[in-house]
Amino acid sequence: MRTTKALAGVALALTALLTVTACGSTSTGGSSTEAAGNGVADKSAEEILTAAEAAALAQGSVHIVGTVTQGADDMGLDLAVEKGGKAVGSVSMSGATLQIISTGTKVYAQGDKAFWDTQAGEGAAELIGDKWVVATAGTELAQFESFTNFETFVSQLLTPSGTVTKGETSTVDGTPAIGLKDGDKGTLWIATTGDPLPLWIDGGAEGSLKFSDWGETVTITEPDAADVLDPSQLGQ
Prior knowledge:
Blueprint: H1 3-22, H2 45-59, E1 61-70, E2 73-82, E3 86-93, E4 96-103, E5 106-111, H3 113-119, H4 124-128, E6 132-136, H5 145-148, H6 150-157, E7 164-172, E8 175-182, E9 187-191, E10 198-202, E11 207-212, E12 228-229
Parallel strand pairs: 6-12
Antiparallel strand pairs: 1-2, 1-11, 2-3, 3-4, 4-5, 5-6, 7-8, 8-9, 9-10, 10-11
């Protein structure tokens, strides 16, 4: 059975998700309004991006929610990530859902029937049931570190694919913000009041990721040992 390889494939898909979202179609993000407060709107595009990354990394945690379209498929992400490799949340793909818990040293994954049967072969769901599959550092699931590692995750999300230019000012969920356009691709919206934190990557038809709960503690509840399957139990 291909359980750990299937999970590793999901990790790679999630890494691709970050790139696709950052390279989506440009959107203005709403009606224009005057930016004020923290002064970033007066800086150059490169200075704004640098300030946003510094502010984000200083927070140490974030909750990210969004959807990305890859071809005919939608991939949803609802993940809270904190420095030290802590992460908890879910990924959904084509009607299948994967729950993820990362403690910093172990990654636990729990899929629904649709996920296991699609990603690990028909009948996998009956074998695994509602158990969690665990992987430790050095296994095929090391790819998960690209999005359960806070610093790496933030850096990937804020790395442009082209030349960054200043866009319009607007509001994102009531917060004044300025848009940074990545060439003719997506728009990253950054708060112009308080800390200059990323608020939204708007990729139009290709996807959207919103950021919230910056700096809040991510609570991790590790599964009970009785609810966990080691990959060796699955013939890995």
